[in-house]
Amino acid sequence: MNDMQTLYKLIVLTLLDKVDFPLTNSQISAFILEQQYTDYFTVQETLSNMVESGLIQANTVRNSTHYKLTESGRETLDYFRDEVSDAIKEDIHAYLKKNKIQMRNENSVQADYDRTRNNEFMARLLVKEKDTVMVEVDLAVPTERQAIALCDNWKKKCQTVYSYLMKELMSE
């Protein structure tokens, strides 16, 4: 492994260490590309290598992969923390200060679906706040097209659905 690959891994570990929620592939890539540290393909190779080596854990939901720091990744970062320059640490700090709320919101709304044994589809829709599930809805639909529509619309309408449920269920 060369020094630049090591640096890219340390950047990803530092980024994941500074947030209390998983980051998506696109969120990590956006930071690294915006700072012009390297190109997209190197970011993807770095993330793949990090998953294989157990430094980060990947969870794929539909078309989005979410990464979080493993204990091994945290130990590695603790050991090599001084290898990340103050300038890079400041770039990470400034980026998160500007984008952290939006990044957290993007990760708090989740939607996925699976085929059931009855050849129907189950859409699992949820909103999380850190590790707490605020609302979770499982809906069975007969077609994959409908399951996809539910997942796509959940991101746009979850606040409205949540408000409606609270209003209806809290009224007497």
The CATH homologous superfamily of the largest domain is named: Winged helix-like DNA-binding domain superfamily/Winged helix DNA-binding domain
How many structural domains in the coordinates?
A: 2
Helix content: 55-70%
Task: Indicate the structural class.
Answer: alpha+beta
Features:
single chain; 172 residues; alpha+beta; Arc Repressor Mutant, subunit A; 2 domains; 6 strands; 57% helix; elongated
Question: What would your notes on this structure say?
Answer:
There is one protein chain. The protein has helices at 3-17, 25-34, 40-52, 71-80, 86-108, 144-170; strands at 23-24, 56-61, 64-69, 109-115, 121-129, 132-141. With 172 residues, the protein is α+β, with helices and mostly antiparallel strands. It folds into 2 domains: 3-107, Arc Repressor Mutant, subunit A, CATH 1.10.10.10; 109-170, no CATH class. β4 (109-115) and β5 (121-129) form a beta hairpin. α1 (3-17) crosses α3 (40-52), α1 (3-17) packs across α4 (71-80) and α2 crosses α3 (40-52). The longest helix is centred in the last third of the chain and has 27 residues, at 144-170. It is elongated, with a radius of gyration of 19 Å. The chain starts with a helix and ends with a helix. The relative contact order is 0.12. The mean pLDDT is 90.
